[in-house]
Specification:
The protein is of the alpha+beta class. It contains three helices and five strands, in the order ααβββββα.
Length: 90
């Protein structure tokens, strides 16, 4: 499912114009992204939690040459599904 599919589904279900739904959906994604950039956790009840996790530096291996290479630390976005989502997807 793409962002366009979400917009079409919400527009059909609510009878709102697609352009208005698109603005709301995009603003929602922008707010989530801004919060993650600030290092905040986003908790959406019954859906899940988005948060930033810092990965430690480690030693990796180049698969072509087999040579070991250092992998620097980095931040990644992680998602933990909520109980309701887990129950429905199961």
């Amino acid at each position: 499912m793409t962002k366009k599919d979400i917009i079409l589904k919400v527009s059909d279900d609510t009878k709102l114009k697609q352009i208005d739904v698109k603005k709301v959906v995009q603003k929602t994604f922008d707010c989530i992204l801004d919060a993650l950039v600030r290092g905040e956790k986003i908790e959406l009840r019954n859906f899940g939690i988005f948060k930033i996790k810092e990965r430690k530096s480690r030693t990796g291996r180049n698969p072509r040459t087999g040579q070991t290479v250092p992998v620097p630390p980095r931040k990644v976005v992680v998602f933990k599904p909520g109980l309701e989502m887990k129950k429905l997807v199961k």
